[in-house]
Fold this protein.
Amino acid sequence: MPTITVTPIESALGADVSGVDLRAPIAPEVFAQIRQAWSQHLVLRFRGQRLSDPELLAFSRLFGELDPPGPNPYGKPFLAEFPEINVISNVKVDGQPIGNLGDGEAIWHNDMTYIETPPRGAMLHALSLPVSGGDTYWANMYLAYERMPARLRERIAGRSAIHDATYNSAGIMRKGMKPVTDPRQAPGAHHPLVIAHPESGRPALFLGRRRNSYIVGLELQESEDLLNELWEHASRPEFAMRQVWQLHDLVLWDNLATLHRRDSFDPDAERIMHRTQIKGSRVKAHDVAVAA
Ligand code: SIN
């Protein structure tokens, strides 16, 4: 039986997968091993995968229906021919950005949690890279929940937060949005702070992004203080892995059990990534899901 090799990157999360060519049809038993590795390590890195866009889409679709990218600041898809692919890039052609997020830091976030049914997972394929900078980090939110002080766990039990839709992770306002002056009024979905992962059933801390977040039912200052404490805990280096990109890396991640962020890089360098997202369903609170 064909087998893949799975080598952990960090004890917290992440693994390199080798022994598979993602351009070729993938045997069901090999795909089952990939799914098993994904569930165990949350972030999988496949090095040296020179995929065309249709090949990226075909591999992504093995995991389920794809989610089109959320609204970008420019109001139209970056790749008209492949609207399910999002482009993450700082490159401009004739003064027009070919992709999203620019060259600055992208803060810790889960993707698109401002909608009711956030993507289950996502992939990034590296097509052009700066010599240095632009590293991406993922953090394991199962672990963050497991290692949370009991008093903090008690304070968030049964609570939900607003996941603001106004800004992307680079701090750029999305088209059609207005500045938020009070996080209690921020537009965006409300999700439980502790979700039951739809496949494993395990509890995971589910924060979305810090900006304009609000814990429903608390006084504003109390919500701010608690969120600051939660974010400080969730972003501890012990929960994280660092991805120093190589050309044609393909990274697949669990968008419900991990957060990610990106370093800034030289604005004169060119960085181009193509991204796909796997559709998810409405997330459930861990306590509710366990009781049901
Ligand atoms: C993202 O936040 O989805 C992009 C991460 C990256 O550019 O490495």
About this structure: The chain has a mean pLDDT of 94. The chain has one domain: 5-291. The first strand starts at residue 5 and ends at 8. The first helix runs from residue 28 to 41.
